Every structure is written in C-alpha cells, then in structure tokens.
TrEMBL record:
Keywords: Hydrolase. This is PPM-type phosphatase domain-containing protein. Residues 1-209 form the PPM-type phosphatase domain. PROSITE patterns: PPM_2. InterPro entries: Bact_Sigma-Reg, PPM-type-like_dom_sf, PPM-type_phosphatase-like_dom. It comes from the Bacteria. It comes from Streptomyces chryseus. The keyword Hydrolase applies. The keyword Nucleotidyltransferase does not apply. Signal peptide: none annotated.
Amino acid sequence: MAAAYLPAEHDAAVGGDWYKCRRLRDGRALLAIGDAVGHGLDAVARMAQQRHALAGLAQTGASAGEMTTWLNELLCSDASAMTATMITGHVDHDRVLRWACAGHPPPLLRRGNEVSPLPSDHLGPLLGLTPGYAYETAEVPLRSGDLLLLYTDGVVERRGEDIAEGIGNLSRSLSDNPGLSPGETLDRIIAEYRRSAHDDDACLLAVQAD
C-alpha cells in the first residue's frame, strides 16, 4: 500500500482529509478514507475525532456497514458536528473487499490496464445527515495484482469542471500505468495533480492485492 496527503495550501501540514490502513487482530486489513467538511483547525479537529472513532470501532469486529452506521449516529448526536464523507472496508485472506460508502466517491479498481469505479448501488448519505440510517456492506472479489485507489474529492474536483470529468481523468491516469506498484502509481498521479490548480485538500490511498 501507499498513501499521500496533498494540502491545498503549501504551508498547511494537515486538514480535514484522512486515511487509515492497518491489519486488525482478526487478520482482516482495514481500509478507510474520509473527508470532514470545512477547512482550518475546526476541520482538523473533526477529522481527528472521526479517524480515532473509526479506529476504536474497528476493534469490535463489526462489518463496514455497521461501523459506518455507528459513526453516523455519533455525528448526528453532536449538535456541533458537521457532515463528512467516508469509505471504509475490509479485505480478508479470501481477497474480497467488503465496503461501505457514506457520500464519498467510489474507489477505482485497476485490473491489468482496465480501470473502473466500484459499483456503488449501496452508497449511503453523508455522515451526520440522516439519523438512524443503516449503511450497507457490499462485496467485491479481488484478484492477485488488482489495485484499489481510494481518494478524496480534492483529487478530482476542479473549479468550473464537472467532477465526473475529474474522475475520468484519474481513471485514464491509472489505466495508462498498468503494472506499477502502489507507490509508483501515486507518484504518477501526484505529478499530474501538482501541474494544475486546486482549491481543496486531497488524500490518496492505493492498495494492491497480493
């Protein structure tokens, strides 16, 4: 795996975007990426709350959908909280990604030189928006060599440009570089990212199935 955080302001060290990737005690690999609404220290505080809350929930053995549901209730019950987006999931030894999505752009899957977004029929609303919402867990079988790219909207959003166009550009960048490791893949994406203007922080997480 490889990850990168790209602040919109060069003198900023952190913002509202975050990721998490770790192996759990039960052998599953936890993957997560999120974006707390806003900028500055308030967004940083919300980001830290959400990231640490997910880390605690991950120790319960719950599914991705259950963890997302519980985190949504946490945000909905806090009058000072704002909305956020998140993807969280697990990959087990069976190479199946079991994931949930709360208002976040779906991950991209690179298989050989073919790239496509994961099916997102189960996508739920933003965190903190709908109390009592039960998020679903979807399953995606992976193959050896598959690369998953999780990203925040700052990677694909441009002023005056539809986000679908940005996702299409990111997909083409992935398909043009088959066989690269996660780190090499992110290096190529970051080089392209830095050649254009951005108004938002961005975060990337690339994970390859063995």
